[in-house]
Design brief:
The chain is built from nine helices and 17 strands. The strands form three sheets. It has a nine-stranded mixed beta sheet with strand order 11-10-9-7-6-5-4-1-16, with helices on one face.
């Protein structure tokens, strides 16, 4: 792994009510973040990103219910070609992460997710919205996407990278999660969406609805959508295909601990959340560049999101979001060499992408 330079950064988590329209507060949120989004979006060269026409056509074809919101948002931010392509989330630059998932569908159902990613590259915004008349509370991704969230019907969704360096034509998973939260009422409808909407990379997707129906779903650009055998996931899809990634982020160890916690008859929803705050599931940001930035716990019966850290919990409610922020000083490390090895992507189409580290 090499040496690390120790430092710390201030990370501000925000709770924002985006209201009933994507043209309300989102343009103001995009403006200060656009230089960083733009640099990431064009990191492989503009020619590697699909055209505005192709991006919009893909969104209209695969997520027609989301298309009016997309067009309104593009117009609200100025209608620029590059911003329109970015906001479509169609064939974005690939990103690998190191998160964990668990679904608890016994008493007091809860969906729990750790978010393991460099602090400087994270949105850290809990966004409530009522776009199209549907209430959603989600941790945002690339402005209007979501890495985890819950809707007014009590459906919770969260993602973890699937540990496979394959890339193909599809959407960034964040907009797929947003789409599910906007249109699906339960886990079965969410599964149907995951079965038909193409994704650009491999992901594990956790689902839990108000009725207690839970599942972990494996998606990717090169294989059919599959139900995982259990209710937990790290960064694999059944077996280790990217050994270097699995070793660097402790995937196997995290999966074993979470599977045991869910299977233990003495466990409760609260002890499961506590397990996410301890090693190896919680990864200390002081010792790895991909440490745990936060843990999210969604309770469909209450419509709440708990942002949890070992020393604090911030409860947010879908029904009544109180805007605010929590600023945390996060220990961080700068690796002296890459945290993960640079591996060639196993291409589907096109064969022009590379997984970052």
């Amino acid at each position: 792994m090499g040496g690390f330079e120790q430092r710390s950064v201030e990370v501000t988590f925000r709770a924002v009510d985006a209201g009933p329209s994507v043209s309300g507060r989102l343009p103001a949120l995009l403006a200060p973040a656009w230089p960083a989004y733009r640099a990431w979006f064009l990191r492989d060269g503009e020619h590697q990103r699909p055209s505005h026409a192709d991006s919009a056509a893909a969104l209209h074809r695969h997520m027609p219910e989301l298309a009016p919101l997309y067009e309104e948002l593009v117009h609200a931010v100025g209608g620029g070609d590059l911003q329109a392509r970015f906001l479509s989330h169609w064939c974005p630059p690939p990103v690998a992460t190191a998160c964990s998932l668990a679904v608890w569908n016994r008493a007091r159902p809860v969906l729990v997710r750790s978010y393991d990613y460099p602090a400087a590259l994270s949105d850290t915004t809990a966004m409530a919205s009522r776009w199209g008349g549907v209430g959603v509370l989600a941790m945002s991704d690339c402005l209007w996407g979501a890495v985890d969230g819950i809707n007014e019907h009590g459906l919770a969704v969260a993602i973890a990278f699937g540990g496979r360096p394959v890339v193909g034509p599809g959407f960034g998973i964040g907009l797929v999660v947003r789409y599910i939260l906007q249109v699906a009422r339960d886990a079965q409808q969410a599964l149907q969406i995951l079965d038909r909407v193409p994704v650009a990379m491999a992901y594990n997707v956790a689902l839990l609805d108000r009725a207690g129906t839970g599942a972990v779903v494996q998606v990717g650009p090169d294989r059919p959508t599959t139900l995982a055998p259990g209710l937990t996931a790290g960064n694999r899809q059944g077996w280790t295909e990217w050994a270097e990634h699995a070793a660097a982020c402790g995937t196997v160890e995290r999966e074993q601990v979470l599977a045991a916690a869910v299977a233990d008859p003495r466990s409760t929803s609260h002890t499961l959340v506590d397990q996410f705050l301890r090693a190896p599931v919680h990864r200390d940001p002081a010792t790895t560049a991909w440490g745990t930035l936060y843990t999210a716990a969604y309770r469909p019966d209450l419509g709440t999101l708990d942002l949890v850290w070992p020393d604090d919990t911030w409860r947010l409610s879908l029904d009544h979001l109180v805007e605010g922020h929590r600023t945390r000083r996060v220990p961080a490390v700068q690796p002296a060499q890459p945290v993960l090895p640079v591996l060639p992507v196993l291409p589907v189409l096109p064969a022009t992408f590379a997984v970052p580290v």
